[in-house]
């Protein structure tokens, strides 16, 4: 079932990431982070593996895994983003291929990959359940999916706030899905959740808001929305505010390892 206008959303994603590709390669929240280290530790990659990195963005996960496996296929729906990732990853790896591909309709055969990864990208997918089904399909029996993404809290007020905030700042944002939504798709598809963790991820506000906005007016709208938020909301997301500036805040991030039985 398609809840969103998929083609329109995917076109927005391509425009947004095409215009800001270099910023994503250089972004601190994408290029570093506790979760990157966890991905290697949790998956224990083997030299014989073929890995698929979905929506590679700046190529940070591809670069991380390339030295530890036989081959990485890096995919992204945005050609310009993939070019930037290639420029970044090719400095240190020669076992990577780059393919323009839609996460919800992968151009690969069944039972192909040992590991599929997708990090900080699925909130741009209009039909994330289709992505989970596709990841399951292309994995070998016993293969694993490593998923990292921002999630929405259970509380509807907080859920609405964070998704509205993200849409104000980035018109290609679809939804930070809740952990319950992810869990239902994981169960329905036939994955078994091996390990998962929710962590608070601190983001430096200025670089976050400037990465995807295209005018001072948009930046001002985002700031106004935050300043006007209820105390409960400001406290939950730990906004560090002064009357004239927003310094940082925290998002909920879900890291999950699941296996195809």
From TrEMBL:
<feature type="region of interest" description="Disordered">
    <location>
        <begin position="1"/>
        <end position="26"/>
    </location>
</feature>
<dbReference type="Pfam" id="PF08241">
    <property type="entry name" value="Methyltransf_11"/>
</dbReference>
<keyword id="KW-0489">Methyltransferase</keyword>
<dbReference type="GO" id="GO:0032259">
    <property type="term" value="P:methylation"/>
</dbReference>
<dbReference type="InterPro" id="IPR013216">
    <property type="entry name" value="Methyltransf_11"/>
</dbReference>
<keyword id="KW-0808">Transferase</keyword>
<protein>
    <submittedName>
        <fullName>Class I SAM-dependent methyltransferase</fullName>
    </submittedName>
</protein>
<dbReference type="InterPro" id="IPR029063">
    <property type="entry name" value="SAM-dependent_MTases_sf"/>
</dbReference>
<comment type="similarity">
    <text>Belongs to the methyltransferase superfamily.</text>
</comment>
<dbReference type="InterPro" id="IPR051052">
    <property type="entry name" value="Diverse_substrate_MTase"/>
</dbReference>
<dbReference type="GO" id="GO:0008757">
    <property type="term" value="F:S-adenosylmethionine-dependent methyltransferase activity"/>
</dbReference>
<feature type="domain" description="Methyltransferase type 11">
    <location>
        <begin position="52"/>
        <end position="146"/>
    </location>
</feature>
<feature type="compositionally biased region" description="Basic and acidic residues">
    <location>
        <begin position="1"/>
        <end position="11"/>
    </location>
</feature>
């Amino acid at each position: 079932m398609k809840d969103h206008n998929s083609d329109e959303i995917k076109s927005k994603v391509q425009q947004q990431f095409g215009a800001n590709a270099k910023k994503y390669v250089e972004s601190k929240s994408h290029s570093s982070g506790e979760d990157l280290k966890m991905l290697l530790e949790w998956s224990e990659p083997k030299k014989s593996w073929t890995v698929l990195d979905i929506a590679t963005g700046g190529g940070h996960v591809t670069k991380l895994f390339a030295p530890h496996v036989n081959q990485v296929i890096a995919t992204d729906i945005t050609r310009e983003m993939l070019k930037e990732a290639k420029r970044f990853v090719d400095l240190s790896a020669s076992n990577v291929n780059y393919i323009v591909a839609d996460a919800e309709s992968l151009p690969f055969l069944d039972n192909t990959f040992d590991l599929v990864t997708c990090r900080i990208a699925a909130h741009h997918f209009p039909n994330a359940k289709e992505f989970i089904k596709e990841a399951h399909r292309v994995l070998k029996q016993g293969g694993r999916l490593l998923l990292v993404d921002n999630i929405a809290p259970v509380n509807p007020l907080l859920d609405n706030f964070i998704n509205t905030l993200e849409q104000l700042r980035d018109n290609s944002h679809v939804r930070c899905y809740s952990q319950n939504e992810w869990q239902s798709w994981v169960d329905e598809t036939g994955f078994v959740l091996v390990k998962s963790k929710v962590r608070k991820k601190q983001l430096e506000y200025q670089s976050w808001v400037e990465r995807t906005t295209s005018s001072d007016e948009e930046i001002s709208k985002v700031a106004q929305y935050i300043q006007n938020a209820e105390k409960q909301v400001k406290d939950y997301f730990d906004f560090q505010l002064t009357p004239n500036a927003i310094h940082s805040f925290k998002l909920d991030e879900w890291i999950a390892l699941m296996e195809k039985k």
